[in-house]
Structure formats: C-alpha cells, structure tokens
Amino acid sequence: MKLFTFTLAFLATITSFGQAGKFDLVIKNAKVFDSRTGALSLNQTILIKGGIITKVTSNQKNYSATKTIDARGKLVTPGFIDTHIHPTDVYRAYGALPEYFQKDSLEFYRKRLSDTYLPYGVTTAMIMGQSEKWLPPILSWHADPQPGYLDIYTVGGALISNEGRKP
Amino acid sequence: MDSPSAAKQKVIEYYKLGLRHIKLYWKLRRPEFEAAFETADSLGMKVYGHVDQNIMFIDSTLDIGLRNYEHILTLVNSVLDVQNDGKDFSLEMQKYYAPGTHF
Q1: Which of A24, A153, B58, B98 qualifies as a cystine partner to B78, CB 3.0-4.6 A?
Q2: Is A32 a member of any domain?
Q3: Which CATH number do you get for residue A41?
Q4: What is the pLDDT of residues B29-82, one digit of tens each?
C-alpha cells in the first residue's frame, strides 16, 4: 500500500511538472521574419500554446511540447494573405462546376479549397466573387475557422444591371 | 438589378447574411453602382471595384467614393478609349517604331 501511494504521488508530480510550461507546438531553429521591421532573425524558437504564439526567443533550450518541429534554419513567416481568389478557379480544375455544393460533400469542398492554398503558405484568402448559390456554405466556413483549413473572407455574387430595362 | 433600390436591397440582404465585404463589378450601371456603394459604405462594409469595359470609369467611381480597385490593368480603359484613341495610338506607334523609322 505504501509503495502504491508513493507511486501515485510520484506520477502525480510528474504529471504536474509535465503540465507546467508545456506548449502545444514548438518550432525550433527557425529563421523568423518580422513583418513589422522587415528584419530576419536566425535560430529562433517559436512557442505556441492554445493557438497563440506566446513567445519567440533565441533561447535554444529544449522546451516540452506536444509537438516539436525542427525548421532546420528555414524561413518561418506569418501566414500569407491572398486578397483575390475565385473558388471557381479551384473547383474547375476538378471538372464541371456544381450549381450547389451538396450537403454531404461540404467538408470535401472546403478541403479542396484549403489544399490549393495552404501548401503555398497562404492561410487566409479573400473570395472576390462566386455564384450566390455557393454563399451559404462559404459563409459557414467563414464563421467557423479551423486550424487545418484556409481562413476565408468573401464578397457576395456579382451584381449586374438589367441592360434591357428602361432607365 | 432593375433599379437603384434593388441594388440597395441586395446589399442590405448580403449584410444581414453576415457579409462585410462587397465587390462592385463593371456590369453595374452608374445608378445601381452608386446606390450599392452608398448602402455598403453606410453599413461599414469594405467595398472593392472591378471597373472595366468602358461601362464605368475611375473618375466617376472616385467621385462616388470607391477607393479600392481590383484588376488594375483594366483601369487603362478609364484613360484610353479603345474605340477612338486606339487608332491614334497605333498611328503614333507606327510613326516612331515602324520598321525603317530613324530619329
């Protein structure tokens, strides 16, 4: 019993030590670009917790983290923003454009859009026009940003004057 | 869009759907363009323009208040009327750059 209590106490201590200062993601050996100053800093460690960059430090110690990425000196920048995209260009590459997105394929459409931009470092894109019939799912993606998907902003459909009308 | 009030209603409808950005396309004629811009602007929406095809020109859209322009290459149409100025432009090009010209 004594041994059991001791073991329990020991494990609890380990767990609490493990919790303290544990990060969700650590990116080490990163070349960091500061978009405010334009400066590059080498061998930086980026500490991320709860979706927020809590610190960028030149301290090289081994931080405990759920996941650690060794950038091996590669450039790490804030996500790029593409200010003008059209989802038609993305979906057309896969064949004829659908009139509506089918309800059971929404995740699939969202993934295709994300897969087109995320590999280039674009994490946010502005949709500058699409069919009005595509708006409801796109607005739902906008309202519910997810780490694995592209962040989206959008305009509505194209407004067109009726050329045949009397002025 | 059959009227400026239809354009206004559409912008309000988009705003209620949660849209905060709007692009005004060259296929809008001036009365609708103006109504859509004013409505969107009064709702604090960000407005972008695609001004093209000699339907709307940048001097009028600047007057209306539009400040963000997409497809900047198409703004050439605002200063160069292809129908009239195009011929003069090619004559000028011929005069200075045609084979055999020296100056």
Answers
A1: B58
A2: yes
A3: 2.30.40.10
A4: 899 999 999 999 999 999 999 988 778 888 889 999 999 999 887 777 767 666
Best B19, B69, B74 residue to mutate vs chain A (most A CBs within 10 Å)? B19
Instruction: Name the burial class of residue A84, with classes exposed (0-12), middle (13-18) and buried (19+) by CB atoms within 10 angstroms of its CB.
Output: middle
Q: Of B99, B45, B38, nearest to A155 (Cα)?
A: B45
Domain presence at residue A33 = yes
Residue A166 lies in a domain: no
Distance between CA atoms of A87 and A109, rounded to whole angstroms? 10
Range of the domain at A59: 22-76
Are A29 and A72 in the same domain? yes
Residue with the larger pLDDT of the pair A12 and A73: A73
User: Distance between CA atoms of B8 and B37, rounded to whole angstroms?
Assistant: 9
A124-157 residue pLDDT tens: 999 999 899 999 999 999 999 998 999 999 999 8
3-state secondary structure of A5: helix
Residues of A in contact with B3 (CB under 8 A): 165
Domain identity same for A66 and A109: no
Interface check for A143 against chain B (CB to CB < 8 A): the answer is yes
CA pair distance A164, A80, nearest whole angstrom? 43
Cβ–Cβ gap A159/B29 under 8 Å: no
Q: Total domain count for chain A? A: 2
B14 pLDDT more than 90? yes
A135 phi/psi in degrees, rounded to 5: -60, -45
* Domains contained in chain B, CATH given: 4-78 (3.40.50)
